[in-house]
Amino acid sequence: MASTTSRKKTAAARRGLAPGLIFVNLVGALISSLGAPLIPDLAVRQHVSLSTAQWSLTVTILVSVAATPLMGRIGDGPRRRPVILIALTVVVLGSVLAAVAPSFGWLLVGRGMQGLGQGLTPLTIAVARSSLSDERAAPTVGLLSITNAAGVGLGYPVTGLMAQQFGASGAFWFGTAVSAGALFAAWMLVPRFVAPSPRRVDVLGAGLLAASLACGLLAATQGPVWGWASGGVLLLFCVAAVLGAVWVWHQLHTPHPVVELRLLRHRAVLTADLTVLAAGIGMYLLLSLTTRLAQAPPEVGGLGASLTVSGLLLLPLSVGSVVAAWAIRLTLARMPSRLRLPAAALIMFVAMALFTAFHQQLWQIVIVMIVAGLGIGVFFSLTPQLIIGAVPAEETASAMSFNQVLRYVGYSIGSALSAIILQAHSRPGKPFPDPTGYTTAGAVTCAIWLLACLVVLLLSPSRPADPPDEAARRSALPALPAEQSVSGSNPRT
Q1: Which domains does the chain show, CATH number per domain?
Q2: 390-425 burial by CB neighbour count: b if 16+ within 10 A, else e?
Q3: Within 10 Å of residue 317's Cβ, how many Cβ atoms?
Q4: Structure letter (DSSP) for residue 304
Q5: Which pTM was predicted?
Q6: DSSP per residue over 373-433, as a string?
Q7: Of 269, 298, 291, which Cα lies nearest the Cα of 390?
């Protein structure tokens, strides 16, 4: 009787694993979206300037890019479940601290702790690959990747509404409740991962990568405040480049890299990484342009929308991203595999062409966001499949973590690029750009998507990346030290 009950509980846990992982993954996107809509309210409540309040968003990004590769490497071993639970616990505590912060400094500490939530996506994808059947793993992995983008579109209007009704503290208490629910779901559903031994962690490599990305992202986020030609911004970019070069050399010469760069020799992995970088740039260019245009007053060519309405404009992006999961099965599945990502780039080109020509009415923006959501959804659902089909099972979380970091880098580049273009079309002393600024930025984004389409078309594998056996995968890579290899496949729980 006891064994029967145990089997029923195990079967129920397996059925609930996929939706549980999607819910856990959604937390990272929701937590990250708590930053931008709250900046004006935080500036007033904490008695700081808008540029200072912007750090409540910047610190979360910096922590996430520093922690995600390390979480992915540690998660490629028996500590995967503990890493997920510890990260969610830190997110819950950070949300509480941000809600009750007695000063702006403590608020930044809480927001930094929330940044660990962004590292959950690669770990949940690794769990889906090792614990679900092949029939369920593929669609679940696609949804997990889409959820990260869709959650931003969902989180902005929810956060804006919470901030308008209850202030910043109410939004952070909402984040506390959501992350606590995700922690409970992970505790109940995420299985233990069985591996021969823990993987060694390249602490130096993790530190070099974190420092390089932090300097680069800090320069990108502070460029509009300090000035793009200022000494501080230029110095940060130079330091980021030097540290990045040192990190690459170190990864290629250490027996235990935090990111296995030699996997980039697989065209599928290289294509996936370049694709999410381009998608991140294009996505945040559109988001930045849309939110700026929506809140600008009509006399300067804006739409004069409130914070809540401008947040709701991002909701169609989430809807389009989720719909893309079904569109892939119905339409793109019949298309040659090497043409699917270029098709997604063309969809994004169409979205930005529509934005460039038509952005004078709210309903036009809604149509643009729906089309863009379809393109983003296709991108983010296909790229994990490329990586999973090319890398060993024990490298899944690490490879996906690096892919996730490149997505964050793309977000920052897109946000910075929109700020540069709009600032170039703003008159001295005027807070809003001329209407031509949005047209120019849209045209630049169209060019980016055409270039992305060409690059992806040239790089994409000529056939689907079906998972080969371990021996074939390893033979395609340079020889690794024997102690780094993990024999056998991941047992399914």
Answers
A1: 13-191 (1.20.1250.20), 202-256 (no CATH), 259-468 (1.20.1250.20)
A2: bbbbbbbbbbbbbbbbbbbbbbbbbbbbbbebbeeb
A3: 31
A4: -
A5: 0.77
A6: HHHHHHHHHHHHHHHHTTS-GGGHHHHHHHHHHHHHHHHHHHHHHHHHHHHHTS-TT-SS-
A7: 269
The Cα–Cα gap between 480 and 476 comes to 11
Confidence (pLDDT) at 122: 87
What is the rounded CA–CA span in Å between residue 384 and residue 129?
11
Buried b (16+ CB within 10 A) or exposed e, 56-77: bbbbbbbbbbbbbbbbbbbbbb
Residue 436 has pLDDT above 70, yes or no: yes
Both structure tokens of 272: 């996936």
- For residue range 447-465, what is the model confidence (pLDDT) as tens digits? 999 988 888 888 876 554 4
Spatial distance between the Cα atoms of 148 and 471, rounded to a whole number of angstroms: 33
Residue-level pLDDT at 325 = 67
* φ, ψ (nearest 5 deg) of residue 212: -65, -50
What digits encode the pLDDT tens for the residues 254-286? Answer: 888 888 888 888 888 888 888 888 888 888 888
Q: Cα(30)–Cα(91) distance, rounded to whole angstroms?
A: 11
Which residues are within 8 A (CB) of 41 and not within 5 positions of it... i.e. 6 or more apart? 163, 167, 168
Through-space distance between the first and last CA atoms of the chain, rounded to whole angstroms? 21
Say how many CA atoms lie within 13 Å of 281 toward its Cβ: 21
Instruction: Please give the structure tokens belonging to residue 54.
Output: 């912007």
pLDDT in tens, 227-248: 878 888 899 999 999 999 999 9
CA distance 461 to 316: 31
Count CB-CB contacts under 10 A for residue 238: 12
Helix axes 134-189 and 120-131, enclosed angle (nearest 10): 120
Q: Is 60 exceeded by the pLDDT of residue 412?
A: yes
| Strand extents, DSSP E, 132-179 | none
